[in-house]
Each structure stands twice: as structure tokens, then as C-alpha cells.
Design brief:
405 residues, alpha+beta, 2 domains, 7-stranded antiparallel sheet, 3-stranded antiparallel sheet, 13 helices, elongated
């Protein structure tokens, strides 16, 4: 985001907050709503869950916090939003440079957008005390005023931010999520594969850059999707940190605001299909090289494969280390995707012993493929790419061996 765009967003956020304060100060009382003596119905706070779509930005759905003051006709949804309007925004999203900001939108206008997309919308009224709801509204307004000061990451999204703000408003209390779904006992890799089972290309990209983070197990607070949070919040209890008393986190059950009429359709062309076809092509070219003498085509295949390996090997650490969609960590795919093989080829290809380098690297790649069931980041879609490199290394070693003998 350019500096002047950032200033504009902040000004708009400040204006939105000031407008909400003006609305509170000057709104007309609604005489049909009787405020209870303890003010428990003066403000209501709710979690709003919205179903996913095929769009990459909302493939897991969306979540927002709804604040209502019925006696003053005030009703706002506080939603964490990212820039998604252009191709440049899409690239920034992929490389972890997307900014996210909290916006306060009148609920009718906010919900109308998602209803028009025929997405399901469900509301869960939170069982907060009057002072907790006041503090939550204040924290939400402050978040709006700060503008786009957060970066979108796997740990910082609409769910984690909404939940963090709600929990921060609890006064000497905390959430007890109870018994979580069984998949939460698994590491991040297994959990994300479950979440992204209908969006295989998003899964492929995430695991390309995810690295050893897939083997970790994050805290539940940052592992929820909108859907799972909606399921878990129904069984969650608010526990007093002073005397241990408990109460349900949600009152009134789940309220459907819009019926879900669209579902996420699984991509027909998957990474397994694409890389499986490319693997078969490389295998056929290699067989033809030995049986039919297609050496020129095989050589061209090597140039393409190992050039791509070098390019991807340079881009991968840049995306992971410098751009921050996930934390800095070891990435297993740096073994098959790195510039070292091409550098060694350029520097030493004329040496008599160079053929053994192909054999050594082929053995490393085969061993790496064998580790797939034991390392959470690794999957067979990526290992089809590894297998292409291994086949070409074995073939080139065979050529060197044949010349020497």
C-alpha cells in the first residue's frame, strides 16, 4: 500500500469511528425497546460467520463481530478486510504483503453483500457482561481507527483477529473451548489439508511455502476457520478466573441470517493431475532417449527442468524469509528446489568425475521422496516434481557411465 493510500485509509477509519460516536450521541431513542435495569440488553455483541466461496480470498469463509444498540437504532458489523481489487493485490496476497484493516459497516449494508452472493450467514450472540460489551465496542473502534496496521498472515486473519478482540474484552474471564474436533489433535499440516480439501491449488501453494510450520501445532485460537469457530463457539464456556464459575459463551443458539445456496466446488484440474501428466511426459521422453535416440528433446527437457529448478530455488527462500506470509523456518522443498545443481553443472560439467554428481543427487532425491509419509509438509503432488528431477539425473548418469565404459 502506497503511503498516501495508507493515510487515506486511516482518515476514512477515523471518520467512520467519529461518525459512530456522533450516531451514539445524536441517535434517536427507540421507545419500543425497553432497557433492562441491569443494562444487559443495552448492547448486544455477536459473532457473524459467513460461508466460503470459490474465490481464493474467501475459500475458508469470513467472520465479523456485530455490535448492536437497539435502544438507539445502532447496528454495525466490524470486519477485517484486505485489498483484493487488482492483480497486484492478488500477488501481494500470495507473497504475504497484503495489509488488513478493520472496518465498521452498517449491518444491513454489510450483510446485503453476502446475501447477494447467496452465501450462508449465521449469527451467534455472545454471552458477555454489559461492561465486557462496552469494552469490546471500544476496542473495535480503536482497531478501526488504527487503519491497515496489520499484515495478513496465516496467524493474523479475520477469525484470529475477531477472536483476539473478543477475548481481550473479557474481564477476569477466559474462554474454555471444551473438547475440540479430533482433527485439532493433529499437526498444522493435517489440519490445513482438511480445511483446503476442496481447493487443491491453494493447498499446493501453502505447502510449497509452509515448510516446517506444517509439523507444528499452533494454539487453537489461531487454528480456527470461520466454520470451525462457529461449531466450537456453541460448546464454548466463559470461565471466571476468580471463582471458576461458568456460563455458555453463546445465548439463544445459532441464528440463520441467510440460507447457504452456494458451495465450494472442487477444482476439476488438480495439481496431482497436472504434475502427474508432466511426470509421465518426462518419463516417456527419457525412455525415448534410450530406445529411440531422442537426445535433443531430452536435452531440451533438462534445460527447462533445471532452469525452473534454479528459478524456483531462488524465489522460494525469498518468499518465505523476506515476505512473511508464514514465519521464517526450514523448508523441506529447498532440497529439490535450489540453484545449486545448475551452478555445479555450469562450473564442473566438463570434469571427468561430473557424472557421479548426477548419481549422488539422484540418490538424495529418491531418499527425499521416501520421507514423504514421515514429514507433514511433504505430499505426492510435490514429489512428482522431485521424481522428474530424479529420473533425468539417473538418465544423465547412465549416459556418463556409458561413455566411460
Amino acid at each position: 500500500m502506497k503511503w498516501y493510500e495508507s493515510i487515506l485509509v486511516r482518515l476514512m477509519a477515523v471518520m467512520a469511528m467519529l461518525l459512530s460516536w456522533v450516531n451514539v450521541a445524536h441517535s434517536s431513542p427507540n421507545d419500543s425497546v425497553k432497557v433492562l435495569p441491569d443494562s444487559s440488553n443495552f448492547v448486544t455483541a455477536s459473532l457473524v460467520i459467513i460461508s466460503p466461496t470459490d474465490d481464493v480470498y474467501s475459500s475458508l469463509g469470513h467472520c465479523a463481530v456485530r455490535m448492536e444498540c437497539p435502544s438507539h437504532n445502532l447496528d454495525f458489523c466490524f470486519s477485517s478486510e484486505t485489498e483484493t481489487g487488482s492483480f497486484n493485490d492478488f500477488i501481494n496476497f500470495l507473497i504475504g504483503k497484503t495489509s488488513t484493516a478493520m472496518f465498521a459497516v452498517e449491518s444491513d449494508a454489510f450483510l446485503k453483500r453476502y446475501k447477494a452472493e447467496k452465501r450462508g450467514i449465521w449469527q451467534y450472540q455472545l454471552n458477555l457482561t454489559h461492561h465486557e460489551k462496552q469494552d469490546l465496542w471500544r476496542k473495535l473502534d480503536e482497531e478501526v481507527m488504527m487503519g491497515a496496521h496489520r499484515s495478513f498472515t496465516l496467524k493474523n486473519n479475520c477469525v484470529s483477529l475477531s477472536l483476539m478482540l473478543i477475548q481481550s474484552a473479557l474481564i477476569k474471564e477466559d474462554f474454555d473451548f471444551g473438547k475440540l474436533p479430533e482433527i485439532f489433535n493433529h499437526d498444522n499440516g493435517d489440519l490445513m489439508r482438511k480445511y483446503l480439501e476442496n481447493t487443491p491449488w491453494a493447498e499446493f501453494f501453502l505447502f510449497t511455502i509452509g515448510g516446517s510450520e506444517a509439523e507444528k501445532t499452533y494454539d487453537p485460537d489461531i487454528r480456527f476457520t470461520p466454520k470451525t469457530l462457529g461449531e466450537v463457539i456453541m460448546q464454548t464456556q466463559i470461565v471466571s478466573l476468580e471463582d471458576g464459575t461458568r456460563r455458555p459463551a453463546v445465548v439463544g443458539g445459532r441464528k440463520e441470517l441467510s440460507k447457504q445456496e452456494t458451495t465450494v466446488s472442487k477444482t476439476s484440474i488438480t495439481p496431482m493431475m497436472v504434475f502427474g501428466a508432466l511426470f509421465l511426459l518426462v518419463l516417456i521422453i527419457t525412455i525415448a532417449e534410450w530406445w529411440l535416440g531422442w537426445k535433443t528433446l531430452a536435452k531440451a527437457t533438462d534445460v527447462i527442468l533445471f532452469t525452473l529448478q534454479c528459478v524456483l530455488g531462488i524465489l522460494l527462500p525469498i518468499i518465505v524469509i523476506m515476505l512473511g506470509l508464514v514465519d521464517v523456518h526450514w523448508n523441506w522443498y529447498l532440497i529439490p528446489l535450489n540453484p545449486l545443481p545448475l551452478i555445479i553443472y555450469v562450473c564442473f560439467r566438463k570434469r571427468k568425475w561430473f557424472g557421479k554428481v548426477y548419481l549422488l543427487y539422484a540418490l538424495v532425491l529418491v531418499a527425499f521422496i521416501c520421507l514423504t509419509p514421515f514429514i507433514s509438509q511433504l505430499d505426492w503432488e510435490h514429489q512428482l516434481i522431485t521424481a522428474m528431477f530424479a529420473i533425468r539425473c539417473i538418465s544423465n548418469y547412465g549416459i556418463f557411465y556409458k561413455k566411460d565404459n
